[in-house]
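Onboarding guide, step 5: your first structure request.
Type a short instruction followed by the sequence, for example:

Predict the 3D structure of this protein.
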Amino acid sequence: MVFDYLQGHPEERQFWQGKVRAAVQGSPDHHLAADRLQSDLWAYVVERSAVTEPFRGASQREGLRRTSMRNLAEHLIRLWTEPRPKRRPQSPANPEFF
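The system replies with structure tokens like these:
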């Protein structure tokens, strides 16, 4: 629901793209960035559920029990940021022994 809402509202999507990119830049790895973003995404759902559809309707039907936003955070990171280069495996010091 959150992803669909962001896709349909360009100004909200642009805000979250900036937030996702800033979280990735400020974290040593994507896992820590996703941890930070998941709490921000949940706070966003709570805030939106008081003022706009489809969040308001969903919260009235289902309540506002804490839902993990980890998968969404990881998806947004993969979607809106450049992949970090993978580390190359270190070559052995003496290859003739292998």
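Each response can be followed by summary notes, for example: The chain has a mean pLDDT of 89.
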